Amino acid sequence: MDLEYKKREIMKDKEEIIKNINKLKEEKNAIILAHNYQPKDIQKIADFLGDSLELCIKAKETDADIIVFCGVDFMAETAKILNPDKKVLMPEIEGTQCPMAHQLPPDIIKEYREKYPDAPLVVYVNTTAETKALADITCTSANADKVVNSLDAETVLFGPDNNLAYYVQKRTDKKIIPIPIGGGCYVHKKFTLEDLKRVKEKYPNAIVLIHPECNPELQDNADYIASTSGMLRIIINSNEKEFIIGTEVGMIDRIELELEKIGEKKVLIPLREDAICNEMKKITLQKIEKSLLEEIYEIKLDKDIIKRAKVAIERMLNIKG
After folding, report:
1. Which residue has the higher pLDDT, 192 or 9?
2. What is the distance in angstroms between the CA of the first residue and the CA of the last residue of the chain?
3. Domain limits for position 243
C-alpha cells in the first residue's frame, strides 16, 4: 500500500473517531478532562486540559453527568471523590496506575502517625483515595508550600514525593518529615545535573524550568521551579525565546498548543527526550470512543473513603491567596 495513501486513511479514521467522540459527548452530557502529560491527540480534543490542581478544581465545578478522565488512576479517583454522584470513566484501566501514588500505603502512614502523633499529614494528590482518606489535607506541586504554611503545626508529615518535600522545606520554617524514605516519580528522578550541563552547553541562553518532583541538585540550578501550569504561565508571559523543560515531554505539546493560539513560536528543549510517563501514554482516541460508547471503565470507591478523602481535598481547595 502507498505510504501517503495509508497516512490519509489513518487521518480519515482519526477524524471519524473524533467526530463520534463529540457526538457521544453531546448525547451523554459528558466532559473530557486531560492532564498536561497526555498524548497530543488527546490534548487537542479535551474540554479541559491542566495540571493536578486545575483538574481538581474543574472536576469539582463541572455539571456534566459523565466525566471521562484522561490521566492516571489517582486523578480519576480524585474526580470521583469530588463528584460522588457522577459517573467517572477512565478510557483505559490496565497499566494506568501511577507508581508514586502507591508508595504511601496505610501501614506506613500508621507507623509515622504513631511516631509523630501531633504532626498533621499532608499528602500529594498523587496518592490513592485510601491514602487521601487518612490525610489531614492534600496538596499539589502548584500549592504544596502554601498548604504546609497554612497549618498550625511546627512539624509536618509530607508524602510521598521526597523531592517535593525538599522544595517545600526550602519555603517554610516548619520541620518537614518526608514519608516514605525514597518516595518519588520515576520520570522526574531520571533528570541529572549532567543532563542539564549537556543541554545548557548547546543552549546557553535558554531559561531552565524544573518541576519540583526533580532531584534537589536540579532544583538548585534552575531559573524557575514550577508545576506544569506554572511553567506554561512563565513561558507565555516571558520575552525570552528559549526554554529547557525539566518535566515529562508531553508538557512540550501542551505549551506548543497554547503558543499556537496566541501566534507565538518559542524554542522548547526537553531536558531529556526519554522523560516519558508510560502510564500517561496508555490512553488513545479509540479508547476514549469505546469508553464513552460502552461507559467503561467506571471508577467506583467505598463511600466512607470518598467522604474522608473529600474533606482532605476540600481543605486544600479552600485555602485562600
Report:
1. 192
2. 59
3. 188-276
